[in-house]
Amino acid sequence: MRRATWAGVLFLALVGSFVLSIWLGSVELSPSEVIAALSGRGDPTNRLIVVQIRAPRAVLAILVGGGLALAGAVFQALLRNPLAEPYILGISGGAATGAVLALALGLVASHSWALPAASFAGAILAVVLVLRVALAADDRVDVRVLLLAGVVVGAFFAACIAFILSISDARTVRSAVLWMMGSLAGADWTTVATVALYTIPAAVLLTGLARPLNLMAIGEDTAGYLGTNVESVKRTAYVVASLLTAAGVAATGVIGFVGLIVPHGVRLVVGSDYRSLLPLSFLAGAVFLTLADVVARTVLSPTEIPIGVITAFVGVPLFLVLLRRSMGGGQR
Amino acid sequence: MWLARTRGHRDALASVLRLVRFVNSWSVSFLQLSTCALIVSHLACAGEAALPERDASQFPSDASLEAFPVEVVDDSGVRHRFQAPPTRIVSLVPSATQTLLAVGVGGRLVGRTDYDQLSELAALPSVGGGLQPNLEVLVSLEPDFVVRFEGESDQATADRLTDLGIPNFAIRPDGIDDVLSSIERLGLITDQRVAADALLAEIRGDLADVAARVEGRPRRRVVYLMGGEPPWVAGPGTYIDELVVSGGAVNVFDDLEGLYGPISLEELITREVDLVLVSDEGGSPDLIDVEHKSIPSWVEVPGPGLGEAAKLIARLIHPEAFP
């Protein structure tokens, strides 16, 4: 009951935030101008703004925001650690190392796809490295080893970034810092299509793992007795959630807080049943990032605020209120 | 304090902070380098002669000299063909904006960046920063010519502009020749060749005058500090290095790899230095006991003020050559 209600509310919010996102911007457009532009009529400049700039950006925000929140929820379930977020296992470090390397080697100047490709490759390298370390210890994936390996690999990549930046020139440093702050400004339909190619199948697959993740929340052994192939669930969840994160990071850089705060917020409202938590986290993350992006590009227009600033400024107080309320209500 | 700082740098946390500071300080230098556009006010502050007044109307449009279309290659190697001179221009590079004003086409500018603060541009809408302009504002201005900065970071912006059908001309004013060439090309494209030639002749005249005055004088060993901690300097290939050399000096850090970069304080202390030039927001001015002179920030705009900048730097290095 409750789940369906929340799903309905969030879906409406998603539609609303999408509409806001293509309506509001640095250039003032009336609703009728936006509708004309969407239907292929009206002023060609407005059409360019709505169809080629705002719309891909709104869709990318939905995909990346939803993906990060869903990946965060899965990592929190998998690692049984409330501090887990999509980047905790070194993915952001790997992606950033790839991006910085591509910038430092000057690959980005000649090929605009080099940056996302290199950061995606870096993220995958981090994922493989962490999994190899976690599996080397034992044939089973021990989530504590996985967590430790992830944090250590992340620290190693952070050192790589510091090293590459220290021997790079100023322009590389500046681009790298901008990239690491995260932005949706580069969104075009090609990026959207690439990210969708990863996000949609990954989201479907992960949502399908809700039942085994529920059982594993009771205990891995119990889940095993009840017929869950715990090992395969852990590996699938880890690899797919990582791929999902990597696709987002490659397209937008590192956007913080969405993957940490949104799943916790959803959990505080609807409880810990992953069958509700996973899909609702996706919806809530999508709404949250879309709205954050609207704020990021309109508040100081024409200058854009890094979107990570907005996700933290809005997300943290919101989360603290939810946390306090739930404590007061005696839940959890 | 020196020691404390060195020791502090060994600490991992401190080095992260240093990285952040270094990036911050760099972006300040960057603002000075290619974006600070306070030429007029700074000239007044520094008590220097103001840039020569240029009245656009004194130069006739010179379509008669060479009929359009013209073909011009930009600094990313792309060949652009112009059927007619552009009429709605947005320059994302403040030094190029000043060049456009100087050749008399300020009236065709339809936008500016946040870093263009000349009063004659204040009424124009801003597209935000020049490196990552706000695309939707830029599109809404309907420019038929955008000047952008050519650099490692900017391929994405360039590709987006091209995708959106906005002609974008890349310039990268690293050395003096690059600056002169960009002035020449912008003059050609905007059909203001006469004005551009006059401006070029004036800059070349200033450079020749400076060269004649410092000729035969002892070459002083000069460090040009651009601020930051550790301080940044300009290496070979930059107009700053060339201005220092043309002013009758040796750039002490002419072995720097890359155009601009940080130097270690130990290097600064151990190298033989006669004079330190410190740009407005420069730091660490009192580490070595030699003469320090301050450089106004308008010098660090590689545009039409280049000739004045050459004279100013030469005068600071060899005051006796400018009685």
List keywords for this structure.
heterodimer; A: 332 residues; mainly alpha; ABC transporter involved in vitamin B12 uptake, BtuC; 15 helices; globular; B: 323 residues; alpha/beta; Rossmann fold; 2 domains; 4-stranded parallel β-sheet; 11 helices; 12 strands; 15% strand; disordered N terminus
The radius of gyration computed from the alpha-carbon positions of chain A, rounded to a whole number of angstroms, is 20 Å
Low-pLDDT stretches of chain A are none
Pairing-aware structural class of the strands and helices of chain A? mainly alpha
The proportion of residues forming helix of chain A, as a percent range, comes to over 70%
- Strand order of the main beta sheet of chain B, please? 4-3-5-6
Helix content class of chain B: 25-40%
Largest sheet of chain B: 4 strands, parallel
* CATH-defined superfamily of the largest domain in chain B: Nitrogenase molybdenum iron protein domain
Overall body shape of chain B: globular
Sheet/helix structural class of chain B:
alpha/beta
